[in-house]
Amino acid sequence: MTSPSNTAASNIADGCAAPDQSAPIPASVDLQKETVITGVVTNADGEAVGGAYVRLLDASGEFTAEVVTSPQGVFRFFAAPGSWTLRALSRHGNGDLTVDATRGVNEVGVSVSS
Amino acid sequence: MSRDTALVSADWAEKNLDAPGVVFVEVDEDTSAYDGGHIPGAVKIDWKTDLQDPVRRDFVNQEQFSALLSEKGIANDDTVVLYGGNNNWFAAYAYWYFKLYGHRDVKLIDGGRKKWELDARPYNKDVPVRAATQYQASAPDLSIRAFRDEVVQAIGVKNLVDVRSPDEFAGRLLAPAHLPQEQSQRAGHIPTALSVPWSKAANEDGTFKSDDELAKIYGDAGLDGSKDTIAYCRIGERSSHTWFVLKELLGHENVKNYDGSWTEYGSLIGVPIALGDEPGKA
């Protein structure tokens, strides 16, 4: 007996929307190969900002990707080693941070203020 | 089509939430955003479960689309105002889809959910109850949908616009940088395709750039206005955003969205692929 683990819905190719930002990194992701940039967006009072838009810009300032923070303020990108800029937009204001990412998990924090 | 008929501002939307004959629809792949709070009165459409056939790799047919809109309480003569996350990618996909099935009056909220959030406009969690309708979709308008053979024949002949990120275009990445990269198909782009990432057309707050800015972006990229155009991305929703810009905002005549996009093309046997940052030769 095989269990019907593949539901019809899972046969449909995923779109390009971002997965749940606070979920654990899937086991299928090889952290020896991936460059993960992850962290929390906080406001001027140090509180996590959920629903913020975090944009990943490359070394030339060009847009690469964007995610929405989880209710805990968490975001995550799968990038490549090198220099990146994180730009957070929120109803509490905006903020930027430059990151020099290396292979594996790069943890950062981005604060926003108006 | 033009900006005046295809696009509404978040401000217009907030002032018309209760306008008769206007239905707000949130479209997303992940509908948890809708469930956590949405534009008051909006119904939701799930890009995956409502708009994709559950068995075949295709989207829903004319009868399925008629049944979906009937159940959602949307009538043929309603003004449908679409918005969503991801800078309106999925809403733009739905816009293209509504047009494909002949809906007369469809609009996008400029900036979608992002602009609504950044403006700190109100949400609620109430799911509206709308009486079912007898929606009748038209036969699909294939003048706006491209299929794979047509795309192969368009190499070196029509404008091909690859709207993925530069690294996906060059073959350095297989998916956008917010997704894990493991995929099975080949990387690269369709030879002769111009690289104009969808994001070039949007401001940081998700709204579309002005018509003058947009015309300059595609002109500078080498888009030949006298030729037909096919836009593609990885799976057809980012390219719907660009299709919307070229067809509905800039008014180009023959613009198609290739919804098979790179997940189909990059898995075909024997078709040409170009690597690197240049379009490549036919």
Automatic annotation (TrEMBL), chain A:
Name of protein? DUF1416 domain-containing protein
Tell me the Gene3D superfamilies matching this sequence. Carboxypeptidase-like, regulatory domain
InterPro entries the record matches: DUF1416
Recorded source organism is Actinoplanes nipponensis
Pfam families, per database record: DUF1416
From TrEMBL, chain B:
Identify the SUPFAM superfamilies for this entry: Rhodanese/Cell cycle control phosphatase (SSF52821)
Q: Which GO terms describe its molecular function?
A: thiosulfate-cyanide sulfurtransferase activity
Q: Which CDD domains match?
A: TST_Repeat_1 (cd01448), TST_Repeat_2 (cd01449)
Q: Where is the Rhodanese domain?
A: 18-125, 160-274
Q: Which residues form the signal peptide?
A: none
What keywords sit in the KW lines? Repeat, Transferase
From the UniProt record, list the reaction(s) this protein catalyses: thiosulfate + hydrogen cyanide = thiocyanate + sulfite + 2 H(+)
PANTHER family given in the database record: THIOSULFATE SULFURTRANSFERASE
Protein name (database record) = Sulfurtransferase
What is the phylogenetic placement of the source species in the record? Answer: Bacteria, Bacillati, Actinomycetota, Actinomycetes, Micromonosporales
